[in-house]
Amino acid sequence: MDFRRYLDFLRGQWEWIAIATTAGGVIAMILALTATPKFAATAELFLATPGYSGVASIDTADNSPFQADAFSQQRARSYVELATRQDLARRVVDNLQLPMSPADLSSAVSARVRPDTVLIAVTVKASSPVDAQNLANAVTIQLADDIRRLETPAGMRIPNVDPVITQPAEAPNRPTDPNIAVYALLGISIGFLVGVTGAVVGQRRRFITDARTVEAVGGLPVLGVVEDSGERGLDWSLAALSIEHALPVERPVILAVTEANEDAGESAAATIELTAALACFPDIIVVDASRALERIDDVSYGLRDEVDQVLVVVVTGRMRQSELRAAVERLRAHDLSILGAVLAPPARLTNSYVNQKFSVSSKRRVAE
């Protein structure tokens, strides 16, 4: 399906897509407004390196501030992982006697390193601004103690890295979750996708894909099915034999062929193949019926007195059931039977030519 057909499809199904999109947005807003708000408070740690010299020279290159900064940045990645561990959360819960489990606290904690710095931001979410502030400060203090303990060598009193709380957490003024804009965007997007998917599935279910559906919807028997023979292509021989046995023998019959989409090439190819397959049956005229209908009487080719039945073969399986049902019911009022996606007349064959064919056929039958 190209972009233009995709737009045409969306335009044709816009009611259902709009309903699904609106429903998705409304449901998302309801979830956002009924969700428990979460407040986030953030504290900040600076990783100092007291064991490194404050003067950079050739003799002190290993102890220079540049080396200290690189060392702290490498360590900071590990400290971020420590902040979200349940061991750290368990110590905070035990120290503060909090009415929550270590798992719940650790899941509410997040930490990250500020880009190109030795600063670690520790964020904790809670259901109230005060709880978020207190928990963020408690987790940051515990993280600083753990870093200091891990970075102090045995027998030494000065740690290699000394974390310093440079910014304590403050009580937030507004909740961070739920984000109404994000909820609405996700709801609208999901609703739109559901609407498009439902429209595609519903449309495909309304299409005719097999002979049984043709008979059930159109109320007409299937004369023949053209099978795909693989490398040899479509095999019209069995279909032609089935059609020949199914057609009435007491009068000539027009067998019109149409496609179930806008591609007239399929009906043209089918007409040629079926004409060749039925060449030995003089009472059958195969007509390409792929052009627009001007008058419903045109379907009978001006031969309403001689022929009271027109059979149209479905070439492809992309015809809608509603279109087939409407075509059949409309033409039954004129004593005609048709299978097709639209009301399609024959190609520009003159009535004299068709009459001549029927006259020859009738004379041959009388002679016999």
TrEMBL record:
Membrane listed as a keyword: yes
One GO location term (cellular component): plasma membrane
GO terms for MF: protein tyrosine kinase activity
Record InterPro entries: Bact_polysacc_biosynth/exp
Alphabetical keyword list: Membrane, Transmembrane, Transmembrane helix
Residues annotated as transmembrane: 14-35, 180-202
Record carries keyword Membrane: yes
Annotated protein name in UniProt: Capsular polysaccharide biosynthesis protein
